UniProtKB/TrEMBL annotation:
Catalytic activity: 2-phosphoglycolate + H2O = glycolate + phosphate
Keywords noted in UniProt: Hydrolase
Catalytic activity, EC: 3.1.3.18
Family in the record: Belongs to the HAD-like hydrolase superfamily. CbbY/CbbZ/Gph/YieH family.
Matches recorded under InterPro entries: HAD-like_hydrolase_sf, HAD-like_sf, HAD-SF_hydro_IA, HAD_2, HAD_sf, PGP-like_dom2
Protein name per Swiss-Prot or TrEMBL: phosphoglycolate phosphatase
Pathway field: Organic acid metabolism; glycolate biosynthesis; glycolate from 2-phosphoglycolate: step 1/1
Superkingdom of source: Bacteria
Keyword Hydrolase: yes
Enzyme class, first EC level, given as a word: hydrolase
Molecular-function annotations in GO: hydrolase activity
Amino acid sequence: MKYESYIFDLDGTLLSTLTDLAASCNYALRSCGMPERTIDEVRRFVGNGVKKLMERAIPQGVDNPRFEECYAAFREHYMVHNLDTTAPYPGVLEMLGRLKGQGAKLAVVSNKFYAATQELVKHFFGDYVEVAIGERPDIRKKPAPDTVEEALRQLEASPDTAVYIGDSDVDIDTARNSHMPCISVLWGFRSKEFLLEHGATHLVSSPSEIV
């Protein structure tokens, strides 16, 4: 089916960000004298926003008396280093260009904090993506439908002709809560088996399959 609007997750869907996320996570943990995490651990921790990432990475989570200090260290480091190794997955730019050329409306919704979402989308996808929405205090984050609904509002688009694309169980739930079909990508942070266990119905192994 050809859709008029495409709503994309960011981390693990359009951008390979895991190395930079892990580097900032471990910088913050080191700065607070806490044990570092492996790449595979960070991969499992991402998907619900960076505060939840740090809650999972920090011993005792939000109950740790140094949680806010460590979380602040992560945010400060990541805003400086979020372009160190981050890049679009192979084929993503070509896919977005083809969709744009066909007249599709494109947006990104992410649980990443707002400033980083705006910076990364503008840097990598400014020629293609019209709307980018990150974590905001006035709107519920995914899997609530609020960010998707806000993206559709800004695009002046209908959910009836839109599709959501992501790489995680959070994205599957977000699409369901937004009453939209979901395309689950296999190059992101979750395995095919994991996605199927969490209700994925349409899987793609390369960006070209989205067009």
